[in-house]
Amino acid sequence: MMSSQTWLPFFIFLILSNISSTFVTAQRYFCLGGNYTSNGTYNNNLNTIFSSLSSNMSYQGFHNASLGQIPDRVNVIALCRGDTQPDQCRSCIQDATHELVKLCPNQRQAILWQEFCTLRYSNNSSIFGDLADFTAPFLLNMYNATSPQQFNEGLRTLLDQLRAQAASGGSLMKVAAGNQTGPDFQTIYGLLQCSPDISQDNCSRCLISAAQRIPGCCADSIGARILQPSCTLRYETYPFYNLTRIREALATPFGSRPGIGPAPLPSGSSPPAARKHRLRLILLTGFGAVLIVITSIIILVMVIKRRKNIKNAYNHKNMEIFLKNHEEGHLGWEKLFEIAVGIARGLEYLHRGCNMRILHLDIKPHNILLDKNFHPKIADFGLAKLCPDTASIMSMTRARGTVGYIAPEVFCRNFGEVSHKSDVYSYGMMVLEIVGERRHIDTELGDSTNETYFPHWVYKHIEVNADEEDRDGVIEEDKKRKLTIVGLWCIQTDPKDRPSMRRVVEMLEGKLESLQIPPKPYLCSSTRLEVDVSTYESSI
């Protein structure tokens, strides 16, 4: 029989892989502008203050400091998550200091959110005690609640309770964690935290602002992390925080730094203290490992059950299934049109809903999940990139995406610069695939669909106004033609000729008579395109 020490890593690995794999991750740093010269005064001040920052962290996991004179004065705020152990906190801050200067070289202002800590520095002293007013990233669990209305009600109740508790914290720590019973035997766990140097009112305002972002970014999701410069908000359907550590830190006076780990029993200890110490040693040795294994098994069963419920809710269906397999069901043009508009709205939010644009860079039918009501949700952000809202283009070291949906400028810079218009192109190709059902249509052009550039066939089809009934046998020509025209506009070779996603939504919701047929798309066949992409990737 395997020992508890052998089983333990296996169960922990399974649990972490089940939990973490469901999250949509995003870039979690901002370079906020202002330049300094290498080996200059500001650079020296920054290096000096960073060198001792981790060792100066309080037991509550907070430290702010300033060094130098204006205009080369460096102001730093370092904050660890409220349930982080001191050693883990110091390690996180130390890693953050090294990483942030690499991510934002020669920048006078920057911020980085790590898993267990936040680091921010600026040449502006107003970062101390003031509420930062810019919106930061979020991390989203891709699965939705099976009973969204009841889940959101429970979440709202929990966040209101925790916000009041966190805001009322003192100048050492403003954090609160707790749970609330949700629907379908779920428990919702939450942790809210503010930078302790801001006031109670500002803390409350910051957490309210974070909660107000949930409907826009994370509606009905069973987990999310809202990251802001002065506060953070996180909720899950599993216990992710150490409540004992939070209570311990809140009860420890400023300046106290208790020892870490099981210390030797002092001589002359009283019998109750000795018994307490022996119990602690037992829990930290073999018996404690057995308890951890048992707990891990229970959590694993809960995770599997939750994932089964999620599968039942989504049935793992995506747009690609409906395009490939007729047995999955027939979607009428009314429903297809609603799905296309829903996807467009989702992309519009990614591009314009936050201060930082989120470029998905892999829009395709497989990455569009459909719930039981056929409401679309954009998934798989593995290739996503963040781009400042003020920047119109971004740099990339290699092509990314799926052949057939990649914008021309992504694999060859001669076509233009990579930007949010690259997502527009992928959306357009997907819409045309929805309209034409490429895999099931005989083009009657003398060549197979694999040898004919698909958008060219669509363009010729709309030019001659070929009447074609949809798979339900009902002609809804207006919606079909509107989707076709919008799709052709989206795949224009020059990114400047493509509409923004906001304009796409307006075109889809507007009148058909106001839409003009765009110029014929210029590109070679899909086979040639695939060769070009492969050649480009092998050359970098």
From TrEMBL:
Please list every transmembrane segment annotated in the UniProt record, as residue ranges: 281-304
Q: Does the keyword RNA-binding apply?
A: no
Q: Which residues form the Gnk2-homologous domain?
A: 24-126, 133-240
The subcellular location is: Membrane
The record's section on Pfam families has: Pkinase, Stress-antifung
**Protein kinase domain: which residues?**
161-523
The Gene Ontology CC terms held by the record are: membrane
InterPro entries under this entry? GNK2, GNK2_sf, Kinase-like_dom_sf, LRK10/LRL21-25-like, Prot_kinase_dom, Ser/Thr_kinase_AS
Keyword annotations for this protein, in alphabetical order, are: ATP-binding, Glycoprotein, Kinase, Membrane, Nucleotide-binding, Repeat, Serine/threonine-protein kinase, Signal, Transferase, Transmembrane, Transmembrane helix
Membrane topology term reads: Single-pass type I membrane protein
**What is the annotated signal peptide range for this record?**
1-26
UniProt protein name:
Uncharacterized protein
Source species:
Buddleja alternifolia
